[in-house]
Amino acid sequence: MPFRDPNHPLAQAENLRRAIHAAGVALWSWNVTDDQFAMDEQAYNLWGLAYSHQVKFEDLSAHVHPADRDRVRDAFSATRGIVGAYEIDFRILVGEEIRWISARGLGDDSALHKGQMFGIFINVTGRKQAEEGNELLAGEMSHRVKNLLAIATGLTNLTSRTTTTAVEMAQMLTGRLAALGRAHDLVRPLPGHQGHATLLGDLLSILLSPYEDMGVFSGRIRVAVPRMGVGEGSATSLALVVHELATNSLKYGALSVETGTLDLSGSSMGQDLELVWMERGGPQVEPPSGANGFGSSLVNRSVAGQLGGSITYDWSDAGVIVTLRLNGKRLAA
User: Which residues 6+ apart lie within 8 Å of 26 measured at CB?
Assistant: First the structure.
């Protein structure tokens, strides 16, 4: 064994202290008879306490986070009945800062030496924060996937009732799902703690880019909107609205002919946002007759329900003008 060699580096107490300090390990001993704690300098720093020869378990317990205090007290009281190693993770309060500590030691009275139990404290704040971040990310991803699956299921059911052929259904459903996918890809964290959002201008430009890429359509779509964030739920709803309007324009409006143009502009109206979809240079359009189709119903539900706004149509001879009035708070949520 290397420690039988008195010249081994780790046989020297000072080198052991150096290794312990380098590892960020804090040492403690607990006198189970009088409840006195003895700790090294690193432990006092970890707990944010001034050095003292008189530290009892209750003195340390007072600094444990209230949500963890009873659990820690019960765990330490039970350590003498634990056979083998134990580990307890808990939070402490150091001023306004919350730190995570892992207390580790050996249980059972067989681990006692002259009435004392021994162990270490380790600062595991970084690991706990990473774990919490991963849990939040997993929960968020699960939430997003469930929402998208629910929307996809609803779109499939509704589209099947409003199309007559498998080819038509596939084309309409693929387009709507693609709009959802493009909006979902844009939802990302923004700097400055703005939440999970995308910029409105980026969202609209990317949603309309497939129509802009069709050769003769190049340069005919212009987007000018305020710089603002759009939240995850609103991004998918707004994507559906934009996709339906663009699809109708491609079939019947300005984007159906080479001379047509589309201007999508926005302005702040107090706490709300007004988006104006203006088509020019296309064929003459007429207001739809009869009951609204699926696309119109989808747009109305999305605007009124998810976006908390309203939509109006102006079926002018020069081209349709669609005005969306959207709730600013809903849009950012």
Answer: 39, 40, 42, 43, 45, 46, 120, 121, 122, 123
